[in-house]
Amino acid sequence: MNPGTNTPALTPPSRRTAALWGLTVSVALAAGPLLLRHRLPDPIAVHWDLGLGPDRSMPLAASATMDVALWAAVWVTLLVMVPAVSGRRGARAGWWGALVGSSALFLGMGATTLLANLDAPSWTEARLPAWQAAAVLAAAVAAAVSAARLRRGGPDGPGDAACAPPELLLRPGQRAVWVGRAGNRWLSAVTAAAGTGLGLLGLLWALGLVGDGTAAEVLPGLVIVLAAGLFTSSLTARVTEEGLAIGFGPFGWPVRRIRLDRVQRAWAETRSPVEVGGWGFRGLPGDATIMLRGGECLVVGYRSGGRLAISVDDAERAASLINALLAERVGA
């Protein structure tokens, strides 16, 4: 237990745990079809229509092999992520949730597929009750949430990746502003490609080289990619005496504002997309990361106990200014 709290001590995942867990699930996935092969049709039904009747089949051996291979891909990914997720509570929670939830999903899907085919004369006569499919999904979600909560460990403190910002003293009456930016060049490239594609589509349509039907099919996808890219490929952060403002996209809109009276302190940390679960807005409100690129991040600790990390350049200077403004308010 952490001193003075009822929170369990850190429960970092290990490669040994991941290896043993993955092997156990792999054996279970392979053992089911092997033990029940005399009561299963070959091929077996492996896909179901909306009415939960079979609409696709596969040889029994191929089906079992594919299940194990798909699980192995998830398992190896989690195995590789172990070193990156051991140090943070949110990353640990996500890792344990992914491991246990995906295990429950694969095992549940395998079990329901076997039950649906069990003693059926042929794969076309297999039936999958709707409640079983719903139960598997519900169980997987419940398992993931429970594992994430039970195995996340205690709250994080600033770890080895945290960097205490240099002290900044403001003279009486002095006002300072900090502006920092960050971007993801791959998202920017995709956004530019979508914009180019949209312009090219408009030109070809105007020249009559692309029909209305084709244009109507392609247009929504290009617009969605372009809009999403504009709002997620870059951000601008601004620190003033009023607090922190985070503007998204090249136009700095929409803007998320964090008032200074909500902040307890700020610091800089080095974070990676693997560590926080990917790019974009990761985590939950109160303990989240806005991740555009790996590297330096500004971390704002709330008075409520939560935190927000933003991948942005020159994060140390931003943290110094926030702390100086907080100190100025305390001393006022």
TrEMBL record:
The chain crosses the membrane at residues 20-40, 60-82, 94-116, 128-148, 186-206, 218-237. Keywords: Membrane, Transmembrane, Transmembrane helix. It comes from the Bacteria. This is DUF1648 domain-containing protein. It comes from Nonomuraea rhodomycinica.
